[in-house]
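Thanks for the sequence, V.! I ran Lipoprotein right away. Repeating your input here for the record:
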Amino acid sequence: MKRIAILLGLSAFLTTGCDVFENSKAQIEAQYLAENQELQAVIEQIREQGLEAMAHSAQAGTMASCVASKLDGDPMGALVEVEGALQDGASVAELANSIASLTDQEISLESIPELLKAGAETVTYLKTLLETYDLAELQTQFATLLEQGQTKTEDIGTHLRGLIEQCN
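Predicted structure:
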């Protein structure tokens, strides 16, 4: 009986293990945002309304306007719409290289296994970015980031926090 209970518990943990780690990132992000209620409200509005809508509707001179313009002006700014992205340790350079290696023809059933090998987060980020930019524009913007060397030592969370913290 104990073996069955242990096996059921272990299988439940293994099937939800990814959610546990994902939730911890979201929880750390929530703690970070709780330190600045105004910033938290802005990020929540961006996630509800979308970055582009927020950039157009935010009143000039407000924190919302500053954050939205900083994020909207950066190729990775749209990633803030993904919960937990502000605390993500994934490499900006690896994401940029994944994007640079894609072509319009490669986004197909054949490319899905390769993208999944890169990680579920990479697929989520790619989906979010492709909702905002077309692939050619995205590749150009990330190539510029790589050329400038901005992404060599940064992770996604550090990059995004660096953008929004300019508004404090």
